[in-house]
């Protein structure tokens, strides 16, 4: 674990419980070290529903009924063919006590999503509420971006939470930064990359702050409290 870090950034909370908090906060993950159970309680595994289903993308709980993910993970699927696993820590360990298996009622991809990873953002609406626990909690979202010459994220250390490389199962997962109150904020959604941490090969992330209006509009339109 590395040193902790912080950023003065506004936070948008769309859930009915405090966001961005976990039971175990031990600083930034370095070099792919394992996270502690409950360290990233908003992280979910997206799978194809059915026996023997395997993890193929990540996502973040932002509300008891909504998961934020990448459009390229879900835009060609039907809700009945997807399942979300919350509270999971180890993909190789089945039936963990902390797990919640949640079905999907609606897939909301950005209407202007392009295969070139433009507007690569989507919401999964869940059929039932996620139950908040020490292992299942929502992440915070950043304030709506205001364009200007100074980018508040420039030069700031961030964390990608997931189960592997950013192009091999971690697509849709969160790019996180800690605010001054110690809350973790999802400033990006993993979109694309080549391997993990390769020199001169950048990862691609969808900037969440540009889509706050879209996210709140879709959640409001769903009628879910």
From TrEMBL:
This is Putative transmembrane protease serine 9-like. InterPro entries: Peptidase_S1_PA (IPR009003), Peptidase_S1_PA_chymotrypsin (IPR043504), Peptidase_S1A (IPR001314), Trypsin_dom (IPR001254), TRYPSIN_HIS (IPR018114), TRYPSIN_SER (IPR033116). SUPFAM superfamilies: Trypsin-like serine proteases. Keywords: Disulfide bond, Hydrolase, Membrane, Protease, Serine protease, Transmembrane. The keyword Lipid metabolism does not apply. GO terms for biological process: proteolysis. It comes from Penaeus vannamei. The lineage of its organism: Eukaryota, Metazoa, Ecdysozoa, Arthropoda, Crustacea. The keyword Transcription regulation does not apply. Residues 29-220 form the Peptidase S1 domain. One of its GO terms (molecular function) is serine-type endopeptidase activity.
